[in-house]
Amino acid sequence: MKKTLTRTALATVLAFSAGSAFAAVKVGFMLPYSGTYAKLGEAIENGFKLYVQEQGGKLAGQEIEYYKVDDESNPSKGPENANRLIKRDGVDILVGTVHSGVAMALAKAANDSDTTLIIPNAGADAITGPLCSKNVFRSSFSNWQPGYAMGVVAADEGFKTAVTISWNYAAGKESTDGFKESFEKGGGKVVKHLTLPFPNVEFQPLLTEIASIKPDAVYTFFAGGGAVKFVQDYAAAGLKDSIPLLGAGFLTDGTLEAQGESAQGLQTTLHYADGLDTPRDNQFREDYIKNFPQLPPDVYAVQGYDAAQMLDAGLKAVNGDVSKKDEMRTAIRSAKIDSPRGEFTLSKAGNPVQDMYLRKVEGDKNQFVKIAVEKLADPARGCKL
Amino acid sequence: MDPAILLIQCLNAVQYGLLLFLVASGLTLIFGIMGIINLAHGSFYMIGAYMAFALQPLVAQYLGGGFVITVLVCVVLATVLGYFLEWAFYSYLYTREHLQQVLMTYGLILVFEELRSIIVGNDVHGVPVPSWLNGSVALGDVMTYPVYRLFISAVCILIALLMFWVLNRTRLGMMIRAGASNREMINSLGIDINRLFRIVFAIGVALAALAGAIAAPVSSVYPGMGNAVLIICFVVVVIGGIGSIKGAFLAAMLVGFVDTFGQVFFPAAAGVMVYLLMAAILLFKPEGLFKH
Lengths: 385, 292
Hints:
- The complex is a heterodimer.
- Chain A is α/β, with parallel strands linked by helices.
- Chain A folds into 2 domains: 10-141 and 277-350, Rossmann fold (3-Layer(aba) Sandwich), CATH 3.40.50.2300; 144-270 and 359-376, Rossmann fold.
- Chain A is built from 12 helices and 15 strands.
- Chain A has helices spanning 2-19, 38-54, 78-88, 100-112, 144-156, 170-185, 204-213, 224-236, 256-259, 279-291, 299-317, 325-333, and strands at residues 25-31, 58-59, 62-70, 93-95, 116-119, 136-138, 161-167, 189-196, 217-221, 245-248, 267-270, 336-339, 342-346, 352-362, 365-376.
- In chain A, the strands form 2 sheets. In chain A, strands 7, 8, 9, 10, 11, 12, 13, 14 and 15 form a 9-stranded mixed β-sheet that branches. In chain A, strands 2-3-1-4-5-6 form a 6-stranded mixed β-sheet, with helices on both faces.
- Chain A is globular.
- In chain A, 57% of the residues are buried.
- The model of chain A is unreliable at 11-21 (pLDDT under 50).
- Chain B is an all-alpha fold.
- Chain B has a domain at 21-223.
- The longest helix of chain B has 32 residues, at 3-34.
- Chain B starts with a helix and ends in an 8-residue tail after the last helix.
- The A-B interface holds A 34-36, 38-39, 168, 194-197, 199-202, 204-209, 211-212, 214, 224-225, 227-229, 232-233, 236-239, 242-243, 254-255, 257-260 and B 1-2, 5, 8-9, 12-13, 15-16, 117, 122-126, 128, 136, 138, 140, 142-146, 148-149, 218-220, 222-225, 228, 259-261, 263-264, 267-268, 270-271.
- Chain B: The chain crosses the membrane at residues 16-37, 69-90, 147-167, 196-216, 228-257, 264-284.
- Chain B: Belongs to the binding-protein-dependent transport system permease family. LivHM subfamily.
- Chain B: It comes from Pusillimonas noertemannii.
- Chain B: Its main location: membrane.
- Chain B: InterPro entries: ABC_transp_permease, BCAA_transport_permease.
């Protein structure tokens, strides 16, 4: 009796798997679900699922099956975690991650196994630069982009000299290099680049340095706890009113509650802002709040949402058949994404060509001021695609 | 560099050094006197800071107190926590080898981080500076120096003086010094060494938590804040000589100056300056500046 049952069950399973044309599309999330970036990972996943849900739970007629791995924002575990999704779960599409170091490892694993990867945050220039690859896309930004946009703004405002300051690591350097490039093109001069070791937050000596140099403006790249402390210390040192502080958007994203008064009026550049007030963005925010009332919609949710849109564009072109990898990737690369941030396309290297916004902190919002640079494309230096 | 700026940088160095001393003094006490490598010391700093953040509204509501009361509540709670931890965990470690001590105290780091994540979450939070300390002093023509930072330094100096007095002039200090040099002897003289150690440990935890609590308004509170402090504190303890409060004080000042001026004059090598200092000192004084 037992044997017959097993046999029947087995036959049913076989019949089912042979019956459907293709199995569901397997999407693997490799995101931080613990540690400092846990909330970012959650927002990205929420955004992604929101889009799929809006399409009736299917993309191009295909069921979507989710697999999850917590990457712990730990680069040394990157290859191992990526392979759990690629080899063990056999995912068709990888979505990840926040931390640039982990994303590099992830990109390498994706290249080795010829898996399509959509990066919903990590901004390392190299991923869509020297390491670019036909199967790797980004729904977020390159570190160069916000920096370059702010350099344009700073030069336009007539600042002649600037000091840049960041942690002594790749993201900081890429961002401040972007600023320097456009600021000096616009006639300004970066007189000094100050750094301190990551994740040191004893800024006082460098603030004193800034006070002794007295530049027209300061451009900075900090995020998370470092951003909170830098903004507070900058104000406490009395520099805020005499030397304008400019930054990449992460300086004031998700940190405003902690920064309080000291962040008011700061100007930053990013590819998303509060108060864009377009029908598309308003609709997105309303839906997002309805589905995830505990987390307000932010740039990370948008990046997750757009990762799903990019996948959708690819799947539609191949009628949901993920085995047609090349066709699908060509379709993603040439897609026009109707993002809440505003429409964007992808560069050859797979990075968004998007409007960069100038924002100003008002209360707990990064209020939209103007478009700093329209359709800004990362130069993708070193990419051979 | 013009003299005014140089002076401000010296002030920065002293202020950073003093805060380091406050955290490191607890570590060196526990390390030197009880012989325990306490990796969880950074967590106590973190706990102090998070308590200052989380308890502030509660204290205002139920005790009607402000910042000072909050800090006092933090210190009292930390002392109780330290007393409990020594009884529940650390007291089993005295006779064990260092590897086991490292494993257990590392485990505690993970436990405390996870608890922090469950109770307060993973957000960065600011702690407001008390209004009566919110001013700033003008330094030079562009820069101002927050009064609160001067307040931190004053508290650190006060605590340092208090510690010297307790260790050198009181009966408790005498017992602590005696217990450190010969555990069996002091036990045979009828002094309860276990109780003594429990008190020392509680004081160490309280010092770290106090440092965290008063640093919170300038450092804000964020996940992983304890680990960064832990490493630099071990540097201070090793340079100063394990167990020596005097050594910890001098070492903290040295680290403060080297770190500050390293950032200004050798920005590219700022990350290694402090460790070079440690290596150089250990080369000539393998047991640190003050041998215990």
